[in-house]
Structure prediction request, 108 residues.
Amino acid sequence: MSLYLAIAISILVNVLLVWYIVRLLRKFMYISETISDLYLTTKAFQIFVKGMYSMDAFHGEPMIQELISRLREVSEEVELFRSVFEHSLDQELEDELNAREAEAEEEA
Prediction:
């Protein structure tokens, strides 16, 4: 009798653990997608600000130069977090942003 009770408790505990692991994995996937979106958004904004800085009207503006510097720091921090959760990153979109960034640097 006690063997059946131990097996029943073991099965119940295993079912609860599987349920808990599934919930954790769902949360990690959500975090991964959110961080990837944040990374791509900061990367696109960084490209925009660099393009704006290269315009004649804003070239040499110290506030925009400071903005670029701070934005680079934020991008590096997001990149650090992204490296942990990079399973859901849209590679095609990132390649497009990298190409735009390279074009912006060539124009400057």
Q: What stands out?
A: The first helix runs from residue 2 to 53.
